[in-house]
Design brief:
By secondary structure, the chain is an alpha+beta fold. It has 8 helices and 12 strands.
Length: 288
């Protein structure tokens, strides 16, 4: 009788775990560093193995360099995603999205963008995958205005997930940058690459992320983590001499309709992400 009770308890725990998995929707956004160039084998086997272990329902990708639509579909199928959309072939740093579920109502935007974005619908969620320019803050301001205009034009209320590499910092992390080291690094960049401006009136520019927040989106990482968690730089990309200058420039935002559905949000740091890209990925689990 005792064995039966134990078996029933184990079955209940397994069932609970399975149901929990079925009742969540996992989104991951990841900048791959020029098409995951550090995984140089055909089919990117190390990367695909990592994705299988992470089990995302939706994977937002930036810097999908060197991929064709067919190549993206093949790689996505290897980690269990039968649906995939590439922004454009032949560009150096296109974005892409792959999913377990059909990706419908796809809108690709690359005009007036340095790197572009994709708007689509996946399993009832309105998704945006974006990579803003890493260069001038004024161009980023233009790009985020274009993206938000596109979102507002679609007038689709409800479940929005906006994710990607924004190449800029958040006002919600301002305390992490008060030592001035990031601003000084940007000043050195400006001196080297004039007339590009990384700083806004010699200060860190928070306007891009502030505009996203002002448009009714919430930063999921800040909803669940008061502490600062960098997405740049992973361990393998920290400077060999001197301290790292960390920043958080990769984000997932959700609309107000999803605030109560945010179950877990984190920056993924592990043996793979420490070494295979110059960005850490961000993960969001939503309750269905």
């Amino acid at each position: 009788m005792k064995r039966i009770r134990i078996c029933l308890l184990l079955c209940a725990l397994v069932s609970s775990a399975i149901c929990g998995a079925q009742n969540t929707m996992r989104f991951i956004t990841y900048n791959l560093l020029q098409g995951m160039k550090r995984d140089s084998a055909n089919g990117k086997p190390v990367f695909t193995d990592w994705v299988r272990k992470m089990k995302p329902d939706v994977l937002a990708l930036q810097e999908v360099t060197g991929f064709t639509q067919a190549g993206l579909e093949s790689m996505a199928a290897a980690y269990g995603h039968p649906y995939a959309v590439l922004l454009i072939e032949g560009e150096k740093y296109p974005v892409a999205i792959t999913s377990k579920y059909p990706i419908i109502n796809v809108r690709r935007v690359y005009d007036n963008m340095d790197r572009g974005f994709i708007v689509s619908e996946v399993a009832g969620y309105q998704t945006v995958v974006v990579h803003l320019t890493p260069f001038d803050y004024r161009k980023r301001q233009q790009e985020i205005a274009l993206l938000l205009a596109e979102v507002n034009h679609l007038k689709m209320p409800g479940k929005w997930v906006l994710m990607g590499d924004f190449n800029t910092v958040s006002p919600q992390d301002s305390l992490a940058y008060q030592d001035g080291r990031l601003a000084e690094a940007y000043r050195r960049y400006e001196q080297k690459y004039a007339p590009i401006l990384k700083l806004n009136k010699d200060r860190l520019d928070y306007s891009v992320i502030q505009r996203v927040l002002d448009n009714g989106f919430s930063d999921v990482l800040k909803l669940k983590n008061a502490a600062f968690h960098k997405t740049v730089h992973p361990k393998a990309f920290e400077p060999k001499t001197g301290p790292d200058i960390p920043s958080r420039i990769d984000f997932i935002f959700v609309s107000n309709a999803l605030l109560k559905k945010v179950g877990n949000a984190r920056v993924i740091t592990d043996g793979f992400t420490d070494h295979y890209s110059d960005h850490y990925p961000v993960c969001l689990d939503l309750e269905k």
